[in-house]
Amino acid sequence: MKRYPDIINVYKQMLLIRKFEEAVEKLFSRGLIKGTAHPSIGQEAVALGIALSIKKGDYVTSTHRGHGHFLALGGNPSKMMAELFGKASGYCGGKGGSQLMADPKIGFMGSNGITGAGIPFATGIGLSIKLQQKKQVAICLFGDGAASQGMFHESLNMASLWNLPVVYVCENNHYAMSTPVNETIAGGSIAKRASSYNMPGITVDGNDVFAVQEAVSSACARARRGNGPSLIECITYRMSGHSRGDMCIYRPKEEYLLWQKKDPIRKLFKKLHREGILNASINKKIKREVTDIIHNAIKFARKSPYPEFNSMLINGVPFK
């Protein structure tokens, strides 16, 4: 479903994801949010590229770094923030937190705290679609670390053998926690692994929202025609730490500064500015609107009630 036909709205939504994640980091540092969270700062173009590519009825499985994916697909910022605050008005009633939010109504089948777990999940969805002879597609998001899990290889093998309508999208953000990707991927390319499973594999600029859109749209169209799965590797960069409290001491400063220049939001802004679509006045207005959305989401979350004790019971017995 093309939720953002206006290119200005694509920019605005990418900025909303960025500001949401920055707000989450600040709230954690102040002790206002408990638990954990994995920001997607720097990876906004992948989320929007997928949102621009899918149709109504398609499914998306996410990762532990799923806030951006959810927002891009139409997740409600206030309900998401309330879930992070552990409030009853959140997507999971305040009991799931960052890694378990989902909304099947918009095709977002949820984040997942288990590395790579969304891969077999999406594969199963693809099998269900095929058995029902529908034209839907399952889009599976995972990171470069998950690409070395056994379930990655098992799932791609099965999807190819059974010709399933699944598009596997790897967000290669260069680090599996603190381990650089060049120390974990033999051969230097995740996309090249597709040939072992007799499916197309392509590497794209994950910081270019339209490059991602073109690749995912093409793979989805191929899947709908009954031609099976594809693997897309989006080269991007995690600008934030792996999770809250991560100071990124393992990352060379020069590398970080280089990727700052490739920031996907900055990249899109420059493009729109060159084409006369976005100027300083419009940009200021957009930033103000995004700030208001985030402010209202935090206000909603803080004012919302905590879950009632009875909601923690199963048949009158405390959940263990």
Features:
320 residues, alpha/beta, Rossmann fold, five-stranded parallel β-sheet, two-stranded antiparallel ribbon, 10 helices, 41% helix
Entry summary:
The chain has 320 residues and is α/β, with parallel strands linked by helices. The chain is built from 10 helices and 9 strands.
Q: Can you walk me through this structure?
A:
With 320 residues, the protein is α/β, with parallel strands linked by helices. The chain has one domain (7-301): Thiamin diphosphate (ThDP)-binding fold, Pyr/PP domains (Rossmann fold, 3-Layer(aba) Sandwich), CATH 3.40.50. It has helices at 7-29, 44-51, 67-72, 77-84, 118-131, 150-161, 209-224, 253-260, 264-274, 280-303; strands at residues 59-61, 138-143, 166-172, 175-176, 179-180, 201-205, 230-235, 313-314, 317-318. The strands form 3 sheets. It has a 5-stranded parallel beta sheet with strand order 1-2-3-7-6, with helices on both faces. The protein has a two-stranded antiparallel ribbon with strand order 4-5. The protein has a two-stranded antiparallel ribbon with strand order 8-9. Helix 1 packs antiparallel against helix 9, helix 1 (7-29) crosses helix 10 and helix 2 packs parallel to helix 7. The protein is globular. The termini are far apart. The mean pLDDT is 93.
